Amino acid sequence: MIFNYLGLAAGLAAFLGIWIGHVAVREIECRVVSITLPSIGFALLGFLCEIGAFLSASNLVSGTLGILGMTFLWDALEFHRQQKRIVKGRAPANPANPRHARILAEYPTATTLDLLKREPLGRPVGAQEAIALIKAKEKLL
Amino acid sequence: MNTFGLVIGLITLAVIGIGAFWVIRGERVLGYLWWPYFIGAGVLLMVTSGFIKNDWCSALAGVIGASLVWGATEFKEQAIRAELGWYPFGNHKKRPPFAKIIQKWKPPNL
Asked: Residue A94's closest CA among A80, A82, A81, A77?
């Protein structure tokens, strides 16, 4: 029986595409003053991958490029969703970034704390306790 | 012209979208300690995809497998989001087999 590498390639492309995009969007959005250019960059990369997928005769190459392209196109939208998370305080704002500094000044919900950077407790946690838990962890580090 | 990649890419987007839904639901009903089982199921599905002759089915199995693995890495943060009230908190979670051992392991978070 011949092993069909297409499934493995598709799975790896999907996993790596999501992972790389997830980290890249967080890191880039945190540092750049405007998210317009990175959004356009990722959209362009996505379109190029899709064109490559369309032109390739091999299903292995076409599938891999098609999946990577779609994840890059999604990442282009994720920059805007990440900015919304910063506004809501669901992702930490970077005060050294003028765009984030403006968000911190305008929206009381925005915070510099990463409220997800702890272990689960298995019970509901109030806003004040959540902040105290993160600050206690930061002091330990 | 080959539309295989474009269509598989669109299917992947749908699978990722469903993934976000089952991670929320799965954490609420089961709890984040089920993460090793989801990683195992995902890896098994990705390996199994190699034994599927049909390219469409093989690619779909691979993508679903990857989505299961990725979802497992999201479980811990989802548990904290629910604790914070960003998502509904499940009060009656089902503990997985070997929960005491799993509790000693650090959950993956990428």
From this structure: A82
Q: How far is B7 from chain A (nearest CA, A)?
A: 8
Token pair of A44, please? 């362009």
CB contact under 8 A, B76 and A115: no
> What residue type is A41 in one-letter code?
G
Q: How near does any CA of chain A get to the CA of B42, in Å?
A: 9
Interface check for A124 against chain B (CB to CB < 8 A): the answer is yes
Q: Tokens 């990442």: give the residue.
A: A75
Question: pLDDT (tens digit, 9 = 90+) per residue, B31-73?
Answer: 999 999 999 999 999 999 999 999 999 999 999 999 999 999 9
Domain boundaries, chain B: 7-89
- List the domain boundaries for chain A: 5-110, 113-141
Instruction: Render A12-54 in DSSP notation, one character per residue.
Output: HHHHHHHHHHHHHHHHHHHH-S-SHHHHHHHHHHHHHHHHHHH
Average confidence (pLDDT) over B94-108: 93
The type of residue at A112 is T
Q: Is the pLDDT of residue A36 over 90?
A: yes
